[in-house]
User: Fold this.
Amino acid sequence: MVKAASKRLVPVAAEYETVEERVMIKPESKKITTVPAEYETVTEQVLVSAESKKITEVPAVYENVTESYEVEPAYTKIDVLQPTYVTETERVEVKPASTKWVKKRADANCLSANPDDCLVWCLVETPAEYEVITKRVNKGCDGSGVADAGCTKTTEVPAKMGTRQVRKVKTPATTKEEVIPAKYKTMTVRKVKTPAKTVETVIPAEYSTVKKQVLKTPATVREEEVPAEYTTVSKKVVKTPATFREEAIPAEYKAVTTRVLKTAATTRTEDIPAEYATVTKRKLVKPGGFTEWREILCAEKVTGYTVRQIQSALIKAGYNPGPVDNIMGSRTKAALVKFQKDNGLPTGQLDFETLKKLGVNY
Assistant:
């Protein structure tokens, strides 16, 4: 055997194919065209002078009549009489009766040698003291003996009446209302028949078909069996092995050249890089902006009640417009703009679409 059987790795080249790809040249866009308003000439009646009312004053009618009047009003006359006085004598208690403790000598038969032992405390009553006084007592005027009784005399004096001539209203003043009809004038005016509007036209995207080479099968390595190599050589081999005898006969050799394995076969892997082609194509990064008409709520219609509805709706939707105070403040505006951005709505105005999304009545 000259060379032992082995394996080797054979690189298999990658396969490529040409394919067609549809590439966008120009993205879809919109074109907004303004259609002007159409006008027409019409004849109509114009109010020159509105209907009015003329009020005429009708003076009052007077008459002379005789009537009685009060010359002097009725009154009550009160006469005060002098009461009768009587002199009476009365005994009046000046000092009430009382008691007090007084130390006195006891029984004269006290046998104690000590004189102090014969003294006792006695409760002594002190009689009341009186004084006689004289006074004048009011007995009244009617003999009842009650002070000032019957000393006032009341007399009812009737009113004094008289007659006089007076001028009275017979028929009160009134007003007479007269309706003045409105005045009209026939005029020819130019009016809008069809209001101006905008028409939006969608311009489709443009595409182009390009050819490019793409990788069909990537490069690989195939393993192949390498068969062993053999060659026929002539060599002398021992038929009968040498033996020992008394005389040693050296063996005879012949030099032959043989091919031996110096380095075993190995596998070496080489990376064949893929091949790429640069293709230039247009990619939509950001859609083009456009302007369109939106119907918004006029400033004079934005009332405190409307703002209150907006603030309540924003709070309900999870936004913070600040206090519900009927004022379109900075916090309310910021919350409204954030709501419009989050919902893909036009920003910066109170348009009908935003109000409808919030559920606000306008």
About this structure: Residues 76-157 form one domain. The chain is about 10% helix and 45% strand. The CA atoms of residues 90 and 133 lie 5 Å apart. The longest helix spans residues 304-316.
